[in-house]
Amino acid sequence: MAGGAIGAGLRALLLLPVAGGGRTEVVAVTLVENVVGSLMLGIVVAILGDRRPRLRAFAGTGVLGGFTTYSTFAVQTAQLTVPPAVDAAATAVLLAVASLLLGLLAALGGLAIGRRITGARPGSDAPREAE
Question: Where in the chain are the domains?
């Protein structure tokens, strides 16, 4: 719970400078937060793997889960498709595709960075199947 509070607090701090701005600025910050969070989560997962599960839960699920925000991304994207912004539907699709692709690329990059830091081989951080 503390990790989530820390992550949500960091996200709120990043939104403060654009809080009075237009929707474009807020959506851009949300996109950046989600991409950076995906990168950082990839690093955490690669470095910790199955070791130190409590730290991984705190940093990954807690801090980075609180920092990133799928629900805000989903609502912001949906708002671009309803009146009066219905003409922005193409922007909504572009935002959704960009968020997913950039998030995936950032996560892959984070995994690669984490493996490089630890000297681990690819796949060594993959979750093990339940026994």
Answer: 2-118
